[in-house]
Design a protein that fits this description.
The protein is of the alpha+beta class. Strand 4 and strand 5 form a beta hairpin.
């Protein structure tokens, strides 16, 4: 196309003679500039409005609007409603204008002839039209028609002679805008072109996890089963069909050369992945993956419309008309789009490339699902809500992540900023060099309202809680973490010890009561030991009885564990032992008074000591603590189970993470929380021993019974709330009656045929078959899920703090800790025992190179540096392990005594004075001298000392030299001996000789 159709225009001068050609040429130039400005600088097609609708079945409404034809003519339309039509033939003055004298109009009218094939058509008219040939519109008539606005431009000769006036009036250009209708069938597509338009794709709606109040989700398998609603056949087929239609429409309309076969039928690939993973613990990731597929599809479906764009306009596209379509999908492809010019062509090409990347991403998502086998828990900032998938972080469960990164957000990829996309995998090599991407939690999180939490499924829930809490706390992340157990707790008693709870005031009361018992029993131990011989000699107690007292009280101390949670589950067994012990002490008290008219002071003191213990038993502070704990526990323990949790806390959702300010909920399976029916063997054995000891006390049975009746124990069950025994299931009662009758009949028949043992065996099996409530089996209580995290959810609010005295904290408790007063010892300390102080649960075991040197007394542990295993001077290690948790490591340094090198000689001038000297010149220790003659000890700091011995009282002295300021006590002994007769009459050198 030429830059201008009019290549010249006149320039007027004074006194110039003007002709019509000069004026027409100027007008033509200006008019053409207006049209070029519209079509070449702005665009062409329907700019706005001009929408087709049907207010009724027999009418058509064309809304107001504006359009620009490919010749640059502007069409402005005022809204109107049409109820009729008539046959119409396009004017010959438009199709074949007489413009021989107006050559400047040739550039316009040369395009009019292309409307010749469609000159016979129909025109819409209003009900007010006085045209007698008009016909009413009907729904059937309109169903296969399209509406066209034709700008009918006519060159009209205004007739030079009118009546008696023969002045030349020239010609005029007349513009008539006509709403025409044409049948779609047989439509001339050379005039009315089809345009590239992607059909409007329906949105795929993803289901919520659980909104059905009639479905009880109790066990781990129940939790996982709710995820399968997204991979049932009907939902997968709906996804596959929608993706196929969308992709085919894209290829057909835009001529894309992309080739993604899986998008033509993704059902098979989805089913393949589902079958590989649906029986594993990773079912939740299938849910997330299918959600990503639907979101990737929805983002493509919602992608802003790609409009055609051109730079060099073809004026013959629609020179005098725009097509409005018919208001339905059948005519949408004929509606003239707005075709932008200027730089819009580049923008539209960019949008097309982005759209291709979105399809490529969908192809990658479907093909690359893969759950890493060695997952690590990570928290990744993301967005939640109306945001498109490309605005969110890339999830955990995809392979070939570097390629996916290039497709995840087409706009960022186009701007070479795809290395800013956050992902679980953003720290792998080649992903990004930006620290804010590799470690996003260290940087501003304001732009994000969600945190993806991934990599924890299938891991031990205690480890997950510990690691995730560490991540949350170390990064100050604004959400809460809680965990709930997906097991059936019906008719089961939960073992409190299995939970890391805090009992606050009860912990303090328990510690005080335990220490009081320790103090009283320790005092009685010491009192008896210091008076042991006298108690035996006065026949008050035998030595065996004293030892029995000591052993029994020591055992009861052992039952009082450091941790209240360890004590509470076995309280009932403890209580029975406690009662029997009280009886034992009462019987001994009675024996002391038996056959004694008067009691000695020692006997009365012993009775007082026994009364101290009896008073402690009768007060029974442990029963009071247990009562309160049990009542509280009954009120809150059910909140630990998923089935109760979802009923109390509405709004539970699964999105593979948690909103900012929300609560992240881990779901795990742990059936070990239920209390065993039988008490631990240690309790049963001790109770049997105490009863046997009581039985052997030589007191008549009737006297024992009378004494025991005099004791009024506090009933620890007085405050415990139990379920009412009212009938709640008449059907069950009737079934139980039938069961009982069947059992009686079976027993009668079996007893006549089988032995008692065989009859009992068969009856037990028969009884199992008659169970009213089925027992839990592997079908709904999967042992393979034990203590593993199986799913996660979130609440968009902070929950689970209801002000109970008991604060349930399922986070893993702090690991055990061991401490000692000193860490340096000497291997010649054969009698020493040094306590290892344990913080945390008792009942564990020691490890490390010093473990064999640990001895246990009651519930306390001691290190013995004289043990054979630690005799070599070196550093030894010691750790404590309980419940899978390992304590800190102590490093114990073992030393051995040193060889001292002190020498001595007699003073040559003073025979009774000896000089002592350290021959080790490098030795800087201080030494203590005990000269063995009763004199005060002397400290030698400078390696020398002397002493004057008095040989008149003794002929030999043992001088003991002790090294100071060392762990080991290193000593050296020097013997000073006097040799000679000390005879004054024959005084000579032999009379006073010392060695």
């Amino acid at each position: 196309m030429e830059a201008y159709n009019t290549t010249i225009y006149p320039v007027f001068e004074a006194d110039q003679v003007l002709s019509q050609k000069d004026l027409n040429l100027l007008m033509s130039h200006l008019e053409e500039q207006d049209r070029i400005t519209r079509k070449n600088l702005i665009g062409l097609g329907i700019v706005c409005g001009l929408e087709i609708s049907s207010p009724s079945e027999n009418s058509v409404k064309i809304s107001c609007g504006t359009a620009v034809t490919s010749l640059g003519f502007q069409i402005n339309w005022k809204e109107n409603i049409f109820t009729h039509y008539h046959d119409y033939e396009i004017s010959e003055q438009f199709l074949k204008p007489d413009s021989l004298q107006e050559s400047h109009l040739d550039s316009i009218f040369k395009y009019a002839t292309q409307y010749e094939p469609v000159k016979n058509c129909m025109e819409l008219v209003t009900s007010a039209s006085d045209d007698n040939t008009k016909k009413p519109l009907t729904k059937d008539f309109l169903s296969d028609k399209i509406v066209v606005l034709l700008l009918e431009v006519s060159l009209i000769d205004q007739k030079n002679c009118v009546n008696t006036n023969c002045d030349d009036k020239g010609k005029r250009m007349e513009f008539n805008l006509r709403p025409l209708i044409f049948p779609i069938e047989g439509l001339n597509t050379d005039v009315f072109h089809e345009h590239t338009v992607m059909a409007k794709a329906p949105k795929l709606n993803f289901p919520r996890y659980n909104v059905d109040p009639y479905i009880n989700i109790i066990t781990g398998n129940d939790v996982l089963k709710q995820f399968d609603k997204v991979y049932n056949d009907s939902f997968i087929i709906s996804i596959s069909d929608a993706v196929s239609v969308l992709y085919s429409d894209f290829k057909n309309n835009y001529g894309s050369d992309t080739n993604f076969p899986v998008l033509q039928n993704c059902k098979n690939k989805i089913n393949e992945i589902v079958n590989n993973y649906k029986t594993t613990i990773n079912i939740q990731y299938l849910w997330d993956w299918i959600y990503d597929i639907t979101e990737a599809y929805n983002e493509i479906a919602a992608f802003r419309k790609i409009n055609p764009a051109i730079c060099c306009v073809n004026e013959g596209l629609f020179p005098f008309h725009v097509t409005l379509g018919n208001g339905t999908e059948t005519g949408i492809q004929y509606r003239t789009p707005f075709i932008a010019t200027l730089n819009k062509s580049q923008e539209e090409q960019s949008k097309l490339k982005q759209l291709e990347l979105l399809f490529d991403r969908l192809n990658h998502i479907i093909n690359s699902f893969s759950v890493p086998s060695n997952g690590k828990i990570k928290v990744t900032p993301s967005v939640y809500g109306k945001a498109m998938l490309s605005e969110k972080a890339i999830p955990y469960y995809y392979g070939n992540i570097l390629q996916l990164n290039k497709k995840w957000n087409p706009e960022l990829t186009e701007n070479h900023e795809n290395d800013s996309i956050l992902s679980y995998h953003s720290d792998i090599a080649g992903y990004s060099n930006t620290k804010a991407v590799k470690q996003p939690l260290l940087f501003d999180i304001e732009p994000y309202n969600f945190f993806r939490i991934e990599g924890h499924l299938g891991m031990n829930y205690k480890s997950v809680l510990k690691d995730l809490t560490l991540i949350k706390n170390s990064n100050s992340l604004p959400f809460k973490i809680t965990a709930v157990n997906a097991v059936d707790f019906t008719d089961k008693e939960v073992d409190i010890m299995k939970f890391e709870g805090r009992w606050d005031d009860l912990e303090t009361d328990y510690d005080l009561a335990r220490k009081r018992l320790y103090n009283i029993t320790e005092f009685v131990f010491n009192w008896m030991n210091t008076r042991r011989n006298k108690l035996i000699s006065e026949n008050i107690l035998s030595g065996q009885t004293i030892d029995n007292f000591k052993n029994i009280l020591q055992e009861i101390k052992n039952l009082l564990t450091n941790d209240l949670k360890e004590f509470l589950p076995n309280f009932t067994s403890f209580y029975e032992i406690f009662k029997e012990l009280n009886n034992v002490f009462l019987l001994h008290r009675w024996c002391i008074q038996l056959n004694r008219e008067t009691l000695s002071v020692l006997a009365e003191d012993l009775i007082d000591r026994l009364d101290d213990i009896n008073e402690l038993f009768l007060e029974d502070p442990f029963a009071v603590i247990y009562e309160e704990a049990y009542v509280r526990w009954q009120n809150v323990y059910k909140d630990l189970f998923f089935s109760n949790f979802i009923k109390k806390h509405s709004g539970l959702e699964h999105k593979a993470g948690v909103t900012k300010g929300g609560t992240f909920i881990l779901v795990y399976v742990d059936s070990s929380i239920f209390k065993a029916a039988a008490p631990p063997p240690s309790y049963a054995n001790l109770l049997a021993s105490v009863k046997a000891y009581k039985h052997n006390i030589p007191i008549a049975d009737d006297v024992k019974a009378e004494l025991e009746k005099s004791i009024k124990f506090k009933d620890y069950k007085s405050q415990i709330k139990t379920k009412p025994t009212t009938t709640t299931n008449p059907c069950k009662d009737e079934t139980d009656n039938i069961k009982a009758n069947l059992m009686e009949i079976a027993k009668y028949k079996l007893d006549a045929t089988y032995t008692a043992e065989m009859s009992g065996f068969i009856l037990e099996n028969f009884k199992d078959l008659l169970q009213f409530a089925p027992t839990v089996t592997g079908d709904n209580q999967n042992n393979s899920l034990e203590q593993l995290v199986i799913a996660d959810f979130f609440l968009p609010y902070t929950c689970c703090s209801e002000g109970n005295t008991i604060e349930i904290k399922l986070e893993t408790a702090a690991p055990p800790k061991i401490e000692m007063e000193t860490l340096e010892y000497c291997n010649n300390d054969m009698e020493g025992e040094y306590e290892v102080f344990i913080t945390g649960k008792s009942g564990g075991s020691f490890s490390g190179t010093a473990k064999d040197a640990i001895v246990q007394h009651s519930d306390r542990y001691f290190f013995t540096p004289g043990h054979n295993s630690v005799q070599t001077p070196q550093t030894y290690t010691l750790q404590y392990e309980v419940g899978g948790e390992v304590s800190n490591t102590l490093e114990l340094t073992i030393q051995s005594p040193q060889e001292l090198a002190w020498s001595f000689k007699r003073d040559s001038n003073k025979p009774s004075v000896f000089l002592f000297k350290n021959t080790n010149a490098d030795d800087t220790h201080s030494y203590e001298f005990d000269f063995g003659d009763g004199s005060d000890t002397v400290i030698a700091d400078n390696g020398t000392t002397d002493h004057n011995f008095d040989f008149s009282n003794s002929q030999e002295f043992n001088v003991t030299i002790t090294q100071l300021d060392e762990i080991c006590r290193s000593t050296q002994t020097i013997v000073v001996t006097a040799v000679g007769d000390f005879n004054a009459n024959d005084f000579n050198s032999n009379d006073f000789y010392t060695d």
